[in-house]
Structures are given as structure tokens and as C-alpha cells.
């Protein structure tokens, strides 16, 4: 792996990572920075398959990202129900781990305080 602190290398790496995480993207590389791109692409593809399953098994309707997992973890922490529609079995297994880690930190008082605050602001939770 090259020097990630080098702005040129980092740009190529991040471009490759983005392409690798997108299962529908076509590989496209700048000849000038191809090592960084391919390193980023491999890392992005690895992260995609870790969260969503192998591409050869098909591309799911909904793509799981770190942000989505954080939202499921927060839902577990607040004791909220989750929407699991359109996720594959593989994805649901990944989501379940994050949700469970949120449940382990569930605090009824925090949940009630949040709901009261949201109600004060006129925000309804279902």
C-alpha cells in the first residue's frame, strides 16, 4: 500500500474505493495513479461483500453501508423496531449483529427522555 497521506495517492485510492463499493460500477483507472486506484478498489469491494454478500450471488435491492448499520445500532439502543424489508438473508444477519450491539446498550430512561423531547418538538414516533 502506498502513502495514504500523499494527496494524489489518496485521491486515487478513494476513487477506487468508491468504485469498488458500488457493485454496478465499471472499473475505470487513471494510468497515472493505477496502484492507488486498484488498492482502493479491492478494499471497497471487500467492504461491499462483507456487508452485502458476494456479487456473484446477486445484487440486493437495498445496499447496506456503515451509515445504515449505525442507524440500526441506534434503533437497538433506543428500543425501536426496524424495517427489514428488501434486505437479503445475508444482509439481515449483518444487521442483526449491529442491532443486537445496540440492544446491549439499551437504556429505558434515555429512550423515554428522547421520546418526550421529540413529542415536545411535535415529532411523532411510530
From TrEMBL:
It comes from the Bacteria. It comes from Flavobacterium faecale. This is Uncharacterized protein.
